[in-house]
């Protein structure tokens, strides 16, 4: 019975140590960011934008390209219910 309790306590201690190490690593990483100013959100022309961020346009993925919806020809054709989920 004592062995099971000791295993539980050592598991708890190891979990707390791991959480402490990960928290320390997170704080170290955040403190090393080389931003001049803290980022903030501002509303400009009715759109909310992230301002003073360390991210640049090159850091973000490219937006998906959409087809020209005006070129679609099947919009006016009636569809069967089985065709709606294609």
UniProtKB/TrEMBL annotation:
Residues 60-86 are annotated as: Disordered. Keywords: Membrane, Transmembrane, Transmembrane helix. Residues 65-86 have a biased composition (Basic and acidic residues). It comes from the Bacteria. The chain crosses the membrane at residues 12-30. The keyword Transmembrane applies. This is Uncharacterized protein.
